Amino acid sequence: MSRPTQLRRSSRTPTHTKKEETQGAHGLAARVLLKTSISPRAHRVAFLEEQTTRLAKRNMMVTWPWRALPLAAVLLLFLSPAASVDTVTMEAPLAGNRTIVSAGGTFMLGFFTPDAAPAGRRYLGIWYSNILARTVVWVANRRSPVVGGSPTLKINGNGSLAIVDGQGRVVWASPVMSASVLRAGSATAQLLDNGNFVLRLASAGVAWQSFDYPTDTLLPGMKLGIDFRTGLDRYMNSWRAADDPSPGEYSFRIDPSGSPEFFLYRWSTRTYGSGPWNGYQFSGVPNLRTNTLLSYQYVSTVDEAYYRYEVDDSTTILTRFVMNSSGQIQRLMWIDTTRSWSVFSSYPMDECEAYRACGAYGVCNVEQSPMCGCAEGFEPRYLKAWALRDGSGGCIRRTALNCTAGDGFAVTRNMKLPESANATVDMALGLEECRLSCLRNCACRAYASANVTSADAKGCFMWTADLLDMRQFDNGGQDLFVRLAASDLPTNSVSDNSQTAKLVEIIVPSVVALLLLLAGPVICVIKAKKNRKAIPSALNNGQVTPFGQRNHTASALNNWEITPFWQRNHVAASNDAQDSNSMRPAGQGNHQDLDLPSFVIETILYATNNFSADNKLGQGGFGPVYMVMGDLTTDKI
């Protein structure tokens, strides 16, 4: 180890000008920093103390150390190897308490011991470098901590990363590279500012990365899903406890069967399902949607199926998904003002999130009591259990389907779509084409849109087995069309003749309105003609001629009443419901209710001199008009 550089004493007397003292100070600082960049930290500190003491004796403390020492201290900090390096190489492994920091200063990688964990257990992990309370986002050797001794991370000659203990035993290693990859050149491992630790070969690119092996945390840019080409399954797995990063009870992973969907498992038992992706969000997680800060993406191809999210480049927010040890999937956001993590969302969030809570064809709704109900056209399978609020037995159809007898579809709004393991997806079909395809397939039980990004977007889900794990939201979710027998179809159903029904809905009201419009004048004309013929008809029916020829007896005439012609229209209008004539048999009319005067035919004959031609005043559209002798209303004739 080299000895500290000694300052050479000047042969000049100590009567310097202020300018000379300043220049000398900067020169001294430069020489100090040059030396410290290659000397151990302890030696640097001792050297600075020595120089400060000497300068103090020469009364130079007032002129420059108060400026130079803070600068030197800051530069010493940044020249520290732990703070300026983000890579591990074959020649420079990571040992002991040494750490590396990403270029932007966001993440740090090194060995750590969890709080409250047994002493001596060391893990290689990644955590946020600028958060005082260590927040670990990835652990390499979670199954095999280094116990005792000083651990080291190095790059082996076979192109793999390895953690060795103090005795040189390998406790963890990344996959070994192929010979062709190794020939590509030397390897380096680098910690990126997104938290990804990557192993690179000189000309072969990334050979391994920590993002492919999540632990309990999903960072922006990480993929959660399966690479079908390599069989790589990226999933989240909780810590066993807060002080134990070994694999815990809960995992969150994708099921690639049918339409891929994410499930939460406790060991091997499903406890929660996300619902299938609908082009915008998972149908069972309506609050998880793209906004100005976060964007979500789900990719499903023949090569891979995965979900990931990104943070807008213009923001510096810190966010992460965590699968905690109690079985909650939480989105956490870092709040600078409180210097703490805030829970932005958490799943499962209520009783209806329980996997298959209401059984086949059962629909869960936490706003109802009991929370389990049956889909339209179904009824509880086990009534006694249902009465005890156990809906896990599900529901059965009221009426069996008949594929050739008018089956249709009942729509239910705001739904988490059924479990997708038995669903098929056709992204070439629109919603109406989806309906027709489901209708033609007698095994099809329901359909829904697989792409709700726009009204005319294409994408079709079809289920060919029992509908499971459904719930209904107050807001969010989407429409689900469930197949029913014709007799069970509600008014909002979509049947085989839906197109015809739509035409009927348009045509029938139009025709009815037109008929009513035309019928009005016709009815008026008919009534007018009826009223016009009322008195002559009465005369003819009563065997009375308008010209005085009486061939009936007075006793017969006494059984008839005639309404005066000047009140005829009023009477006809008042008796439309009875379709009465102006003349009707006495005692059978409702003249008292009409409040109109009526006269016996005998009086009329007498007053008009038996309808004498001498009394006839004329004839119009309503028939002949006669002058009467006297006042009919007072019987004074």
From TrEMBL:
Pfam family, one: B_lectin
Residue ranges of the region described as Disordered: 1-25
InterPro entries, per database record: Bulb-type_lectin_dom, Bulb-type_lectin_dom_sf, Pan_app, S_locus_glycoprot_dom
Lineage per the UniProt record: Eukaryota, Viridiplantae, Streptophyta, Embryophyta, Tracheophyta
A GO term from the CC aspect: membrane
Annotated transmembrane regions: 64-83, 506-526
Protein name as annotated: non-specific serine/threonine protein kinase
Gene Ontology MF annotations: protein serine/threonine kinase activity
Bulb-type lectin domain location: 85-212
Enzyme Commission code: 2.7.11.1
Biased composition, class Polar residues, residue ranges: 1-14
Organism: Oryza meridionalis
